[in-house]
From TrEMBL:
SUPFAM superfamilies attached to this UniProt entry: alpha/beta-Hydrolases
Key words, A-Z: Hydrolase
Pfam families recorded: Abhydrolase_3
Stated name of the protein: Uncharacterized protein
Keyword Ligase: no
Coiled coil feature spans: none
InterPro entries, sorted: AB_hydrolase_3, AB_hydrolase_fold, GDXG_lipolytic_enzyme
Entry's Gene Ontology molecular function annotations: hydrolase activity
PANTHER family reported for this sequence: AB HYDROLASE SUPERFAMILY PROTEIN C4A8.06C (PTHR48081), ALPHA_BETA HYDROLASE FOLD-3 DOMAIN-CONTAINING PROTEIN-RELATED (PTHR48081:SF8)
Record has Cytoplasm as a keyword: no
Classification lineage: Bacteria, Pseudomonadati, Pseudomonadota, Alphaproteobacteria, Acetobacterales
Length: 317
């Protein structure tokens, strides 16, 4: 048995030791959600001149039922690039606020208008609740581009972990429905395949997000469909046709449970003629980029921003 702790980047070890232990399951989920909320409240405000606005949109469950956070610079230019963000949390926990430090920095650095979706969570609201919420937000952004002062042809999608699932699924759904054009997809260790437990890679999935947590989250999200034919809109790795999708940037860690499925996803899109770029970080486990001071985390955050900047600059070329 390989001691995977020896493979962890030494600068990540203090962050790893501070993470909550044990798997996410139906018994621990309430406490994990409470811990997530507490971490949000503990975030220190920064001095970036960025506006964060809460709004309620008409969503799949009715008028003013879909909560979003809109993040933008105070000195926003007209026809600014836009970004739809889906937060992480295994589809069973999390809020847009959990990503606010990252999103505020993105908005300030790139001059983008960011809409982060407070999508419904499983198991209370299984598939397709989350993706339906995110698609409604995408349509709202496109239909209200003028009022939002954004370029309707330069809307990208991004997300971490479960949010990466939703961002990838949005690209499939928008293509299949001839919906709003998506300029690019920027996925960070995305949760793409409900069959991830099948990986025989012995060094992945030991830290932060384990096979047990992943199995619980997928069963919660898929609900009654868990043992039926799973839709690619629920698990994008199930898709058989990846043609005509937006350019992809994907980053993941070499110790992340999702490493193998992420690599297969990149390969499948490349084989379908989609422009792809991938970064794999040695010694990095799931959510490693949240560690504030580790060199590998700083590098990953910078590379993600750079990929977005290049994608935005390439729109219309």
């Amino acid at each position: 048995m390989i001691d995977t702790r020896e493979l962890v980047d030494p600068q990540l070890l203090p962050f790893l030791d501070a993470l909550p232990g044990g798997a996410v399951n139906r018994h621990t989920l309430p406490a994990r959600r409470e811990r997530s909320d507490a971490l949000i409240l503990a975030q220190l405000p920064d001095d970036l001149p960025v506006l964060v606005e809460e709004q309620y949109l008409s969503g799949p469950t009715g008028p003013a039922s879909l909560r979003i956070l809109k993040i933008q610079r105070h000195d926003l230019a007209d026809k600014a690039p836009a970004l739809l963000h889906c937060h992480g949390g295994g589809l069973v926990m999390g809020k847009p606020e959990s990503s606010l430090p990252t999103l505020r920095h993105m908005a300030m650095t790139l001059g983008v208008v960011i809409v982060s979706v407070d999508y419904r969570l499983a198991p209370e609201a299984p598939y397709p609740a989350a993706i339906d919420d995110c698609y409604a937000a995408l349509e709202w952004m496109h239909d209200n581009a003028k009022a939002l002062r954004i370029d309707s042809q330069c809307i990208g999608v991004t997300g971490e972990s479960a949010g990466g699932n939703l961002a990838a699924a949005l690209c499939l759904m928008a293509r299949d429905r001839a919906g709003p054009p998506i300029a690019y997809q920027n996925l960070v260790y995305p949760m793409l395949d409900d069959r991830a437990d099948a990986t025989d890679n012995p060094v992945v999935g030991q830290f932060c997000w384990t096979r047990e947590s992943n199995r619980f989250a997928w069963n919660a999200y898929l609900g009654a469909t868990a043992h039926d034919a799973v839709s690619p809109y629920a698990a994008p790795a199930r898709e058989s046709d990846y043609e005509r999708l937006p350019p992809l940037y994907l980053s993941t860690g070499a110790l992340d449970l999702f490493l193998d499925e992420n690599i297969r996803f990149v390969q499948a899109l490349a084989a379908a003629g989609v422009a792809v770029e991938v970064d794999i970080y040695p010694g990095a486990f799931h959510a490693f980029d949240v560690a504030p001071d580790a060199d590998v985390s700083i590098r990953a955050r910078a590379r993600r921003l750079d990929a977005m900047r290049r994608a935005i600059d390439g729109v219309g070329d």
